[in-house]
From TrEMBL:
InterPro entries: Bact_Transport_Assoc, DUF418. The chain crosses the membrane at residues 21-43, 69-86, 98-116, 122-137, 144-165, 205-227, 248-272, 284-304, 316-337, 343-366. It comes from Brevibacillus invocatus. Pfam families: DUF418. This is DUF418 domain-containing protein. Residues 229-389 form the DUF418 domain. It comes from the Bacteria. The lineage of its organism: Bacteria, Bacillati, Bacillota, Bacilli, Bacillales. Keywords: Membrane, Transmembrane, Transmembrane helix.
Length: 404
């Protein structure tokens, strides 16, 4: 049996472009959490010392970046699930066993990332939700979509109820949060490794783990939408579905305008809802994340249908081909910066944004150099070897060798 993974010629260019685009957004979203104790900051998420420019950056992120890119990755995960299972089935391979190994590797890497580097890891959440996807592979398209819409609508109705609940000032403990902010900055800047881990286990892990079920529920319907889109061939055969993609583009654009527009109005206090201002902003950031996710994906699919744009997006595609490696590399670089230069809690959002731009440009250069010599990124290669239980070729001049 042919157990080799997808070849370079079989890759779907637009899928790599969307992955690369999502990676750029992800580093922008994650940057504040890399450099500041966002878990314990006031709800606005601004650094302790911030400027008007930082407030503008935060507002821009809320309007066009925050929650807009993990949704894209979630959609792509569902699409990737279908493509993986379908190709394995065509080759008469044990697809469920292979997918189980694939998800187990993802979960293991995600847990290591979460425990030893950064609390904001999404890989382990994807792995947990990814196991549930197996229940839907044989389901009819109508059933999958019904579940996707049901889960999405139920969760958003919960957000609507939260939006209508009046704020309770007594629940806010700003003094306690301020103490944790200072403790986090001290530990992340000057603490020993054991102090760092103790703080994370005591204060960060409980918050993340308590929200884990909600995180799984959030990404699962997006997985199902991505799975459905790939099953229908919308991503693989974009040219055959241009009219449907254009409808999604127009619909998501029209829906995004009022949702995004509400964010600065709430921030400025020109519109006041029963919930606290920070809660209201968070809800509309989440809602606009769903509509802009569809807008961004449909925009890229339409542009990639034109040859000139395919060439212009080649840098994004290169980064997207090494999405696993580049995602973790972003964490390593920012942890290195915050620890070695002792800048945790002191970097402005403006400076952090410039660091993101430089880092992403470096990832484009690194990915281009690496893929000119190797078929896969380093972590992608390990992931494939463990998934297929076979030593797949890495160097472009090497032949396939079985694992000993």
């Amino acid at each position: 049996m042919n157990t080799s993974p997808v070849t370079e010629g079989e890759r779907i260019h637009q899928l790599d472009v969307i992955r690369g685009f999502a990676l750029f957004g992800i580093v922008l979203v994650n940057m504040p959490t890399f450099l500041h104790p966002v878990l314990f900051l006031p709800a606005e998420g601004l650094p302790v010392q911030h400027t008007v420019l930082d407030e503008c950056v935060r507002l821009f992120f809320n309007m066009f970046v925050q929650t807009k890119f993990y949704t894209i990755f979630s959609f792509l995960f569902g699409a990737g699930f279908y493509l993986f299972m379908h190709r394995a089935e065509q080759k008469q391979l044990p697809m469920k066993r292979m997918y189980g190994r694939r998800i187990l590797v993802l979960f293991t890497v995600g847990i290591l990332h979460f425990v030893f580097l950064w609390y904001g890891d999404i890989l382990h959440t994807y792995a947990l939700a990814g196991f549930i996807l197996l229940l839907f592979y044989r389901k009819q398209q109508r059933t999958v979509l019904r579940w996707a819409w049901f889960l999405l609508i139920i969760y958003q109705l919960m957000m609507l109820l939260i939006l209508l609940v009046p704020a309770d000032p007594s629940l806010e403990n700003q003094a306690g949060k301020a103490a944790l902010v200072m403790q986090a900055i001290q530990v992340y800047q000057d603490g020993t490794w054991s102090e760092w881990m103790q703080f994370r286990i005591t204060h960060e892990f409980p918050i993340v783990l308590a929200n884990e079920p909600f995180a799984v529920i959030t990404v699962l319907p997006l997985f199902l939408f991505g799975f459905t889109a790939a099953r229908q061939g919308i991503i693989q055969r974009t040219m055959d579905h241009l009219s449907a993609i254009k409808r999604v583009w127009w619909t998501s654009l029209v829906m995004s305008i009022p949702l995004v527009g509400m964010i600065p109005l709430l921030q400025a206090g020109w519109i006041v809802l029963p919930a606290a201002k920070s809660t209201s902003i968070t809800v509309f950031v989440g809602w606009s994340g769903l509509t802009l996710c569809a807008f961004y994906i449909s925009s890229l699919l339409l542009l990639c249908s034109r040859e000139q744009w395919r060439k212009r997006f080649s840098s994004l595609a290169i980064v997207g081909r090494m999405a696993f490696t580049n995602y973790l590399l972003q964490t390593v670089v920012f942890v290195f910066i915050s620890r070695v230069f002792a800048v945790y809690g002191t970097v402005s959002l403006v400076t952090g944004t410039f660091i993101c731009l430089i880092l992403f440009a470096g990832q484009v250069a690194f990915s281009s150099w690496w893929l000119s010599r190797y078929y896969y990124g380093p972590l992608e290669w390990v992931w494939r070897c463990l998934t297929y239980a076979n030593r797949v070729p890495l160097r472009k001049d090497k032949k396939l060798q079985p694992l000993s």
